[in-house]
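Support reply, case 0932

Customer input (verbatim):
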Amino acid sequence: MTVDLPPAPDFGAPIPLRAAPEVLAFLATRRSTSALTLVEPAPSAAELDILLRLATRVPDHGKLTPWRFVVLEGEAKARFAARLEALALDRGDQTAAAKLGKLKVPPLAVAVISAPKPANIPEWEQLLSAGAVGATLLYATLAMGYGANWITDWYAYDAQAKAILGLSGDEQVAGFLLMGTPREPALERERPDLATLVSRWQDPG
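Our regenerated output:
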């Protein structure tokens, strides 16, 4: 799709606040699409550049950028999935091998990697920032008109699988963002009852 976005603001430039009812309308019906329904076309290279740029505009206490991206596409994505499958089958784990379908089917995947930095910013806040990147990338992809799903599975946590992906040190997979065009629309699911989740603090003193 044609995306007409404003250029990235210069450092220190004022950014006026404006209401964005179209964003609220999008969030009111936002729904992830099933990974197994995602086919070509996926976001183009130029569109993916835009999505990744948008995904980095998240809260980041200390401006540490405690995250990075690994793009999985084309033959490289197929080889990555094949290596994971071989890893599972070498262990005799047919169930783990079968779970790779959600990764294999979509034409494009982006691994959001949580990469905490040594700093006086609590690691927990850095992990939350990586989660914000994942959520923003998911929302931006859907807003661009593509289907998207955020998944984790055994290969997000397995030490050997993470090594295949190229992770090191304290890095973790925050999520695999799967992208493509859905063959069928997503169906609405049950949503939380706010009455059971919201309280208002009262001073007990």
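We compared this against your earlier run and they match. Two observations from our side: The mean pLDDT is 96. Residues 33-182 form a domain with the NADH Oxidase fold (CATH 3.40.109.10). Please reopen the case if you see a mismatch on your end.
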